[in-house]
Amino acid sequence: MITIGEYTNLLKSLNKTSLELITIALALYYLSTIIYALRWKIILDSMGKNVPLIDLLKAILSSIFVNNVTPMSRGGGEILRVTWISKKYKIPLSLSTVSILYERIMEAFPVTILLFLGLTYFARHIIYFVSLAIFVVVLIWLNWEEFIKLSVKIIKVELTTEELMNIISLKRKFSLNILVVGLSSVVWFLDMLRLKLIALAFGWNPSIGFLAIVSLANLIFGLMAFTPGGIGIVEGGLIGTLTYFGIPSTLAVSITLIERFISYVLSSIVGFITLIVLGGTEIWRVLKSH
């Protein structure tokens, strides 16, 4: 468990340029949440449901807090998003659930690209991995229905036949798919850029391929974590990944401290305030009942 004292000592050791880079990294994190909200709005709009972007952003910020204080990755936060939007805008729960599930499924495309980008760190001939990534993405697209059904089984979500067909039918909305995949890709790029800025704050300039590996490791440890917000597991996994590739332990710990301060500590504070200000007590009771 990372203590407040460790954060305080670390921040005191940074110079002005380092603090500026970390501030930009923090701004990129919240830019990512805005893009998440925009992506969700585009999906809901395509389903004929017009929800203000600011309300979707508030729901996402609050869901981050819930994810950080409940076991298992994204479990409670996704329930909050579905409950909040359905309750406030009279959107059927099934439709809200489909919108969020569609988000998760479409993230498979940029994650696949990220995977092969990470593999280029070990390769001399990058073009082979880029070509393979394109092939896998096209393969998924051509087998969309089977891919959706497999994703639903992996995520372990129970859907009605109508809900399943709603997701499958979204393949026909080509512009929607391009927008969602594009925005998801931008978020992953911002995640890598945030890590790069944090590393630069400590005088280290990692390659894009290495950043892709670290981002994938963060994703995997986050999904595997059974503790609230992945406490202990994500930190240990990130430090372990960095040191495994030869990064000095002091540097690995410093990068992890700042990254988790942004993505866990500060995001939890902002999310909690958002939830309380928006009258989230009632929704919190609903979540606890689930």
Descriptive overview:
The protein is mainly alpha-helical and 290 residues long. Helix 3 runs antiparallel to helix 4 and helix 5 (93-106) packs across helix 9 (161-169). The longest helix has 31 residues, at 16-46. The mean pLDDT is 81. The two termini are 28 Å apart. The chain has one domain. The protein has 14 helices and no strands. The protein is globular, with a radius of gyration of 19 Å.
> Count the helices. How many?
14
Instruction: Characterize the biggest β-sheet.
Output: none
SS-based class: mainly alpha
- Sheet-strand content, in percent, reads under 5%
Could you give the topology of this structure?
Elements: H1 4-12, H2 16-46, H3 53-69, H4 75-89, H5 93-106, H6 108-119, H7 126-142, H8 144-155, H9 161-169, H10 174-201, H11 208-224, H12 233-244, H13 249-277, H14 281-289
Helix pairs in contact: 2-3, 2-5, 2-10, 3-4, 3-13, 4-5, 4-14, 5-9, 6-7, 6-10, 6-11, 10-11, 10-13, 11-12, 12-13
Question: Gist?
Answer:
The chain has 290 residues and is mainly alpha-helical.
Give keywords:
290 residues; mainly alpha; 14 helices; 0% strand; globular
